[in-house]
Amino acid sequence: MGERLPPTASLPSGESVLSEAERRRLTRRPSDRAMIAALTATGLLAAFMQTIIVPVLPRLPELLDTSVADSQWVLISTLLASAVSTPVSGRLGDMYGKRRMVLVLLAILVAGSLISALSFTLIPMLVGRVLQGISLGVIALSISVLRDVIHPKNLPGAVALVSATLGVGGAVGLPIAGVIAENFDWHVLFWAAALTGVALFVVVLWIIPVSTLRTAGRFDYLGAVGLMIGLTCLLLAVSKGADWGWTSAPTLALLVGGAVVLVGWAAYELRHPSPLVDLRVNSRRPVLFTNLSSITVGFAFFVTSATLPVLLEAPTVNGIGLGQPLLITALCLMPSGLMMFFVSPLAARLSTARGPKTSLVLGSTVIAFAFVLGALLITEVWHVLLVSTVMGIGVGFAYAAQPTLIMNSVPATETAAANGLNAVMRTLGSAVSATVVGLILAGSRIDTPHGPLPTEDAYRTVFVMGAAVVVVGILLALFIPRRTQAYQHTSSIPIIEAGGEADPRS
């Protein structure tokens, strides 16, 4: 059932049941700026859930009365939940209303934040963090909402801005979380998230028009379960393989089992009349190579997220390690997120003028240059600031281009599901990156009075590897056709008819 606006009924006398103010409320069209701002703020809050717990992570074993190994699940659970929920929530949005699903995910975020705010042991904290991870699907959904509700001329810039929130929210939120954690009880982090979520729920409910574009058919429950199982197995194996051992029985079972499930899932989806993910649409050359390139960009972005904090916080020994506290570390990483925010309008203009493929290739090239700088400059704090800033510029261009490439190549009724799958590709790249970086830094260490620390060669190897992966991404992006048989989005101006709905396609 779709969401409906109330009809404009009339009294027998001819007088309207609704007042003039209420009639204007029904037929109003919020400004594009207001809708973009609402969805951007929603994306920032969801992305903040990734780093909200980082400032207190070293203290979690004590705070939750658990072991160090078990405390890591507070982060891993969020990653897994976001990966499996994003394509599912996207498909639900295509079928039952994107705004409706944005509101559902915001409600889930609030519930997860409240549970975490009331948690003093591991299990309830994991429940809360899983719910917060589920809410990350709101970013892909918000991008898809934009296609339906704003004017086409404003779409590229809006998409670039909301897409950037994935990096901006984490980078900017980290120092904010650090300040709160240092000066207040750590539960305040989650109370603040819950209150902000409630406020944004009201804003989205008030500003964003009702979604009326729907995909026919029934929801593919079996496909959703299959995708969840397959992705969870693979991501869990990648995330914990280094701890469990890559040849251990649990790791191999998860890797093989996940691969088998996903192969079976793909075969099932190809035969299903209303699949969770339309693999035929997503196998189109523009979508396929955009998704493959997204894996490399997600990988690259997390290389710096996993490496630079270690370099900044490590004690200075033989010129390596910068000995900075957590708050300074967070501030040094903030330029990356800020640059993603500030370059998004420029990326949108470039995509409009030269095509989103150009923005993707340019962004990936800038990322590769940032890695070259990282391999050469790792001995001063300003070196880290420079690498972080250049990385943010590159990721900003790349992230802005990917959703546009996807939306230009899929039907409007598949937008949210296709964007959700693209987000999964980024997550997959990030998960692999975290594992590979951890292996490299742990595999090349020197003994110091402060304990084993990564060597200079280890840091340089990480950056060289990152550059190599991005070069592969550039080559993949070159296979994206410059011109495609695009599925054009339709007019975004909603019109209210008596007894009808706001239809952004009219």
TrEMBL record:
Please tell me whether the keyword NAD is annotated for this protein.
Answer: no
Query: Which is an annotated Pfam family here?
Result: MFS_1
Which compartment or compartments is the protein found in? Cell membrane
The Major facilitator superfamily (MFS) profile domain covers which part of the protein?
35-485
Topological relation to the membrane, as annotated: Multi-pass membrane protein
Keywords from the named record: Membrane, Transmembrane, Transmembrane helix
Q: Which GO terms describe its molecular function?
A: transmembrane transporter activity
Q: Name one GO cellular component term.
A: plasma membrane
| Main subcellular location of this protein, as a coarse class | membrane
InterPro entries in the record, alphabetically?
A: MFS, MFS_dom, MFS_trans_sf, Tet-R_TetA/multi-R_MdtG-like
Listed CDD domains? MFS_MMR_MDR_like
**Region Disordered: what ranges?**
1-24
Ranges that cross the membrane: 34-53, 73-90, 102-123, 129-146, 158-180, 186-207, 219-238, 244-268, 288-312, 324-348, 360-378, 384-402, 423-442, 462-480
In terms of PANTHER family, this protein maps to:
BLL0718 PROTEIN (PTHR42718:SF35), MAJOR FACILITATOR SUPERFAMILY MULTIDRUG TRANSPORTER MFSC (PTHR42718)
Q: What is this protein called?
A: MFS transporter
Q: Which organism is it from?
A: Ruicaihuangia caeni
